[in-house]
Amino acid sequence: MLEGKVVAVTGAGRGVGREIALLCAQEGASVVVNDLGASAEGDGADVGPAQETVNDIKAAGGKAIVNGASVADPAGATSIIEDAVKTYGRIDAVVNNAGILRDRIWHKMSHEDWNAVIDVHLNGCFNVSKAATPYFKDQGSGSFIHFTSTSGLIGNFGQANYSAAKLGIVGLSQSIALDMARSGVRSNCIAPFAWSRLIATIPATNEAEAQRIERMKTMSADKIAPLVAFLASDASTEVTNQIFGVRKNEIFVFSKPRPVRTVHKSDGWTVKSIAEEFLPAARPFFTDPTERSGDIFGYDPI
């Protein structure tokens, strides 16, 4: 379903990104396999994992090249797209998958922890997408596939930087979808549930969290790839500005924030009337302030 397409996948040396690159190549795409090869916290660089993915694609009869640039660097992000165009003549889909984790409880999170995660996730999505946009616009087609997370959509402990970046990616994707619709370009998000080296760094502080991690181990990275390949294909030309999730054999469509309760007061609100009238009317519609991703998806996947 991707015959003749050119797809760039960031963070494709390992885990989810690797599985996406392999499947896109299997479906006929020429793939730019980008991976800086850094540690889970973003330190160091090693082109080896990306090269291994490329070698495996070629061994199976597919087409792929390596790009070892950092998506956090605008020039590096641009090189990903330029390599695609120089080698294969075009770019049809961008998969913004690259990521790092620097999980810290809020009161211990440093500016460095914040900036590092925002740079790779949110700024990285912007950098790579911005580089591909002129090509998409000129050819009147293209697909952006961004990776968000339920840590941003719902919330999680110790991930203020990651959660903010991942929810910011949703806002970025929505704006791209609206701005680029007239050019035939679509933009969607996926929240993946899959065991990876990043997930493996999350500590279990109690039995419930330990059980959740064990459930995550059953969710293999290859389960995410089919939806990505679909969104990169022409079969998805009417699909844009959506948020999906993949959890083993489940695919979700997520809702977006919309008003759930409106209270009008003809003579306007005071501090006292908000406390006495608005709050009792609105409280039944409040979300649980302690709810986190694991509470929503606490059941075992099938």
From TrEMBL:
Domain Ketoreductase, chain residue ranges per copy: 5-201
Alphabetized PANTHER family for the sequence: BLL2957 PROTEIN (PTHR45024:SF3), DEHYDROGENASES, SHORT CHAIN (PTHR45024)
Pfam families: adh_short
InterPro entries: KR_dom, NAD(P)-bd_dom_sf, Peroxisomal_Beta-Oxidation, Sc_DH/Rdtase_CS, SDR_fam
Top-level taxonomic group: Bacteria
Protein name as it appears in the record: SDR family NAD(P)-dependent oxidoreductase
Annotated SUPFAM superfamilies: NAD(P)-binding Rossmann-fold domains
SMART domains reported in the protein's UniProt record: PKS_KR
Family stated for the protein in its record: Belongs to the short-chain dehydrogenases/reductases (SDR) family.
PROSITE patterns noted in UniProt: ADH_SHORT
Organism for this UniProt entry: Sphingorhabdus pulchriflava
